[in-house]
Amino acid sequence: MPPAPNDEILQRLSMLLQLGRLARKATEDELNFIMVNDSRTLIPYRQAVLFKFNHGKLEVAAISGLAVIDSSSPFLQWLTKLANHKLTRENPWAAGSINQNELLVDETYLGGEWQNWLPPEGYWLPLLGPQDSQQGVLVLFREEAWTPAEMHVLSYLADSYGQAIAAFSPASHKAWWGKVKKRWKIIAVALLVISLYPAKESALVPAEVTACQPQLVRSSLEGV
């Protein structure tokens, strides 16, 4: 007996919250694994690829079912070209479906190789952090087209993943360190101002006064 619609919605909502909790508590490597593998418990797909920025370009950070990433393999090189080509298209930071027909318009070598590597239907899911900072992209692939309900659920999942990635990004550490350095500058200036303020001090110590050129004076009469 299939689950009732309300039960299915509650189950999907529960899984969405669980994935968000796992993402927040995970290390960086664990987070990559969760995004490409555990997301399947929420939305079915055959393969997932996570891209992250490296020197301004997207590079493959994790692939579902693969423990080790070999950047020299033809498949990963093709995926890297695919992702960076997508960045050149109009509005690349909007989620949406992607397929080989889209690439055949202007990049024949990319679209022509699609069927050798991937299922026909892909979904481009940008991962944004605080203030819409660009953290990476999660791309899901399968045989069936993506439904509006699935796209809606994936948008919430992308928010959780984007915030989790931002916690490990160098920009976040740089911003934190910038605040610390700014505070230290204020403290240094305050110490400098205090050091310029004149401070008078005195102390009582035992001492003896000795003449530099002593002379003996004698008198023939008694007196002072």
Describe this structure in words.
- The chain has a 5-stranded antiparallel sheet.
- The chain contains 7 helices and 5 strands; from the N terminus they run ααββαβααββαα.
- The chain has 224 residues and is of the alpha+beta class.
- β1 and β2 (57-63) form a beta hairpin.
Protein topology:
Layout: H1 5-25, H2 28-37, E1 47-54, E2 57-63, H3 74-87, E3 96-98, H4 100-103, H5 108-117, E4 121-128, E5 134-142, H6 148-166, H7 170-196
Antiparallel strand pairs: 1-2, 1-5, 3-4, 4-5
Record keyword descriptors for this entry.
alpha+beta
Q: What's the mean pLDDT score? A: 82
Biggest β-sheet: strands ordered side by side in the sheet: 2-1-5-4-3
The low-confidence runs, each spanning 5 or more residues with pLDDT under 50, are 172-177
Distance between termini? Answer: 128 Å
Total count of strands:
5
Question: What structural class do helix, strand and pairing data support?
Answer: alpha+beta
Tally of helical segments: 7
Helical content (DSSP H or I, runs of 4+) = 40-55%
- Strand fraction equals 15-25%
Gross morphology = elongated
Q: Let me know the largest β-sheet.
A: 5 strands, antiparallel
H/E order of the elements?
HHEEHEHHEEHH
Radius of gyration: 35 Å
